[in-house]
Amino acid sequence: xxxxxxxxxxxxxxxxxxxxxxxxxxxxxxxxxxxxxxxxxxxxxxxxxxxxxxxxxxxxxxxxxxxxxxxxxxxxxxxxxxxxxxxxxxxxxxxxxxxxxxxxxxxxxxxxxxxxxxxxxxxxxxxxxxxxxxxxxxxxxxxxxxxxxxxxxxxxxxxxxxxxxxxxxxxxxxxxxxxxxxxxxxxxxxxxxxxxxxxxxxxxxxxxxxxxxxxxxxxxxxxxxxxxxxxxxxxxxxxxxxxxxxxxxxxxxxxxxxxxxxxxxxxxxxxxxxxxxxxxxxxxxxxxxxxxxxxxxxxxxxxxxxxxxxxxxxxxxxxxxxxxxxxxxxxxxxxxxxxxxxxxxxxxxxxxxxxxxxxxxxxxxxxxxxxxxxxxxxxxxxxxxxxxxxxxxxxxxxxxxxxxxxxxxxxxxxxxxxxxxxxxxxxxxxxxxxxxxxxxxxxxx
Length: 445
Hints:
By secondary structure, this protein is an alpha/beta fold. The protein is built from 13 helices and 13 strands. The longest helix is centred in the last third of the chain and has 38 residues, at about 290-330.
């Protein structure tokens, strides 16, 4: 399709017309408010969301680039970091920063260990990091950005957790970092962080825990009585943790934290330019100008909910998760992969292609992510999903029956495309296809 030229309007569009255009465009978006979307949006309640909007607007124009001009933002950020450190078992020597999301937190962690290793291990020319096969693709992005070679280690094929022995066997003289997830995104299982931490400590290298999903959930799930594997700074050898506030911290989109056990690591994250004619320029994270609204909203979220609020939300989410998993596993043709530690999980089937179920559910108004290796349906549970347990399970049962009774039915376009990409043997060609797809996707039509 030829690209349509879009130019700046000669005159500004009137407010009412502008809002009407944007509202019309949003009609194609998923209606996440009805609880039928299982991912992308983390929301505690309408009241909590309204509070975040008010706080965000209060600090809409401020810029967190300068803590001297806007000291309130320094207070908010330092207190968010301090509360998170306490939540994740750190002490007074622990430190960190707020970032724009889990990807930036992970990018900063890899950059930090690369620069730390340059000073501590100058003999290492080609640094490597060990990753379980289930690690988030942000680490692959960081590898490309910062020239740290990713060494992917297959996960245990029964538990879906990192294989400690296999990772130990892959440690080389170039290894600077070991990574574990708490939990991983595909199956919602916590890697054996205690064993990985011991391995990192024994080797004298860094150990990063990607708790972007679980950092603001697992501590409260544990307090509710669930058996949660140790994963935070209480584990010897863990040297850094990333945790997203905009997920189960219920902050505004664009807020995460990157934390370090000891403050000497943090200097490798910071960037300072002292010879610029514009003055000394220093920044704690990747961005220069930073949204004050997300920082203020993160502080507001933590303080508005408090421990009791997070515990109540965690109970709702875990009760919902248990009922959903039970209902899924009561369908003979379906089963959940592994043993999820919290409210993120995936399920599949040996009787038919699971993408056909995803298609059937989408025709009934549900938005479900598709996974690969193996093909599965992914779900992230949030408080609003508690209101749609029975309708979801009813539609899921009907979808299974539909697929069984129509074995010849072809997959819908989205699943057909996903299946083609997932099963293509030439992964480099797949990569080129996806990059070309992205290039075309964001062109103005």
